[in-house]
């Protein structure tokens, strides 16, 4: 295991100190950008992660494929291909049928289980468990274990089918009301069908599953044991807030209102969200039956108690809500803690929260046909666009000169999110500015002693660093810590305005990581073409490479460019890699 200096995650100070001045703080995550994810997929209807630390993104294709987005590209071989089980012809699927949901077991990293829901050839909805193969990027297609089949052959719409594990460890599944219009099968208010419901099952016990003891209709209580909540029309995407465990449901309306239903973490089940007696926050005319003639409708709506949606909105130009996620990305921003959702017809994306009394705020007016949202392991939120067959990243950034497409965006934002940098002024990071030895002294001392450390008053150790020099306390502390002995002797000098080179940077970092007495093993001279074993910093450079912090500056042949100076962006990369900062 690598030695780790306490508080080194706060290594990068985040202040561009010029003279005695301090940069004003940039506002965290104050800019939103929609960034296309490279590549296309076949009718994307969702994206999620495995929770296994791989940071892979698993994207569902409606015709029956699951694609992995890894290291900036989609892998050619699908993670799972069940197209032969789904009634789609090529990319065309009847009605709203197809692959509907995907969820990875909370212990996926050890048990390899994941779950899918889809409509089979006759239209019925299937919930099945699969297992990953010996190749972590390919599932075992022969490992299918069907857990549940729900009759849905009469109509091709209103399937629901979303899957997610709740904070209680149970698997939740949404199911639409059976299709048609006006709930002709009267599923929403019936407790004797799984249609129009949110289900909850225990996949770790029973055969093929067990009923959680807390399910509201379990045992002798009238109603199907699997039901957790009811009165839903077509719950198209629900999710749990990964931080609080709160549940959000986007339920597609009939012809007037779209709605968001909410259930606080820890609340008991049994909620009746109103369909087909209510549509959003208004009464629904249950005689609007588009399938049966004469129409079939409820006669007892007035005697029922409903849980009203926290938010609803009318049609035109909107027409079909797509539920999303509460943003918990690693870049702290105006989106943090906000529920993000959209509308398939208008392409608009909003945010809302209880703290704003559920008032919606438009964050982007797109041309997308929003089929779904997705959430990455690092908290990134994505939106799926059927029109372009792409996934789009809803990115927030802090610095005007470091957009999400910048090569060092993740590392710079990671440092800023940790409270380590305020940038070079109120809006910028100045990634291309060259780092000086004086600035480096501050970064290193802050890293070693913590972000709140203040060094003692200077005494004038270095001939070129008078006690009145703006960084004198930090420079002298760096010497006291044994990280540097200066740049020259007779007299002792530090060269504070000199730029930091890639060679000397390796020594600063490795001594700060491993201690002032650390000495790397002897160099071999066989790693970098421009760093022979006789080079003064060769052993340090090769050790930094051995620890996975650098891959050099160029390949064919592999080179390190030891004499080159270091920019602020490059330093962010080195620090994030050195000390395993979580990347947004």
Q: Structural class of the helix and strand makeup?
A: alpha+beta
Just name the CATH architecture of one domain: 6 Propeller
Q: Could you name the ranges where pLDDT drops below 50 across 5 or more consecutive residues?
A: 1-23
Proportion of strand residues: 15-25%
What's the CATH topology label of one domain? Neuraminidase
> Gyration radius, to the nearest Å?
29 Å
The major β-sheet equals: 5 strands, antiparallel
Please tell me what the overall shape is. elongated
Mean pLDDT: 92
How many DSSP helices?
7
- Could you tell me the number of beta strands? 27
Quick one: CATH class of one domain?
Answer: Mainly Beta
The named CATH superfamily of one domain:
TolB, C-terminal domain
Distance between the termini: 24 Å
The percent range for helix content is 10-25%
């Amino acid at each position: 295991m690598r030695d780790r200096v306490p508080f080194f995650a706060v290594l990068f100070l985040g202040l561009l100190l010029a003279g005695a001045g301090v940069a004003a703080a940039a506002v965290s995550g104050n800019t939103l950008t929609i960034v296309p994810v490279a590549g296309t997929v076949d009718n994307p209807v969702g994206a999620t992660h495995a929770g296994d630390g791989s940071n892979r993104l698993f994207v569902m294709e409606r015709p029956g494929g699951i694609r992995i987005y890894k290291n900036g590209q989609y892998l050619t071989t699908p993670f799972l291909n069940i197209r032969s089980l789904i009634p789609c012809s090529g990319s065309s699927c009847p009605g709203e049928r197809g692959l509907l949901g995907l969820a990875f077991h909370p212990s996926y990293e050890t048990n390899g289980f994941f779950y899918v829901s889809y409509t089979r050839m006759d239209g019925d909805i299937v919930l099945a468990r699969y297992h990953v193969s010996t190749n972590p990027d390919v599932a075992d297609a022969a490992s299918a274990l069907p857990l549940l089949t729900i009759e849905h052959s009469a109509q091709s719409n209103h399937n629901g089918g979303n899957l997610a594990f709740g904070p209680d460890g149970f698997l939740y599944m949404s199911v639409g009301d059976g299709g048609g219009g006006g709930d002709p099968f009267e599923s929403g208010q019936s407790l004797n069908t799984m249609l129009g419901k949110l289900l909850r099952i225990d996949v770790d016990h029973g055969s093929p599953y067990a009923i959680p003891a807390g399910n509201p209709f379990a045992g002798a209580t009238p109603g199907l044991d699997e039901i957790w909540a009811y009165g839903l029309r077509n719950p198209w995407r629900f999710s749990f807030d990964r931080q609080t465990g709160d549940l959000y449901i986007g339920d597609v309306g009939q012809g007037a209102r779209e709605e968001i239903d909410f259930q606080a973490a820890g609340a008991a089940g049994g909620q009746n969200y109103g369909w087909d007696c209510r549509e959003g926050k208004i009464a629904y005319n249950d005689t609007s039956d588009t399938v049966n003639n004469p129409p079939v409708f409820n006669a007892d709506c007035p005697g029922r108690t409903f849980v009203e949606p926290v938010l609803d909105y009318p049609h035109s130009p909107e027409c079909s809500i797509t539920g999303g996620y509460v943003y918990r990305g690693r870049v702290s921003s105006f989106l943090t803690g906000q529920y993000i959702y959209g509308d398939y017809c208008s392409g608009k994306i909003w945010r809302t929260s209880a703290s704003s009394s559920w008032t919606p705020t438009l964050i982007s007016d797109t041309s997308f046909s929003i089929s779904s949202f997705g959430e990455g392991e690092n908290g990134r939120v994505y939106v799926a666009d059927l029109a372009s067959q792409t996934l789009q990243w809803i990115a927030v950034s802090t610095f005007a000169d470091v957009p999400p497409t910048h090569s060092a965006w993740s590392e710079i934002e990671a440092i800023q999110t940790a409270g380590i940098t305020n940038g070079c002024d109120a809006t910028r990071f100045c990634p291309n500015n060259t780092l000086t030895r004086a600035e480096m002294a501050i970064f290193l001392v802050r890293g070693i002693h913590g972000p709140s450390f203040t060094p003692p008053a200077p005494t004038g150790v270095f001939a070129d660093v008078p006690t009145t020099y703006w960084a004198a306390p930090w420079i002298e502390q760096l010497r006291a810590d044994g990280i540097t002995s200066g740049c020259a002797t007779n007299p002792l000098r530090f060269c504070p305005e000199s730029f930091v080179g890639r060679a000397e940077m390796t020594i600063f970092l490795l001594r700060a990581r491993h201690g002032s007495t650390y000495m790397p093993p002897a160099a071999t001279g066989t790693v970098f073409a421009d760093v022979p074993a006789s080079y003064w910093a060769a052993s340090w450079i090769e050790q930094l490479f051995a620890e996975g912090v650098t891959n050099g500056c160029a390949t064919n042949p592999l080179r390190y460019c030891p004499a080159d100076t270091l920019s602020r962006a490059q330093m962010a990369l080195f620090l994030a890699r050195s000390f395993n900062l979580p990347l947004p």
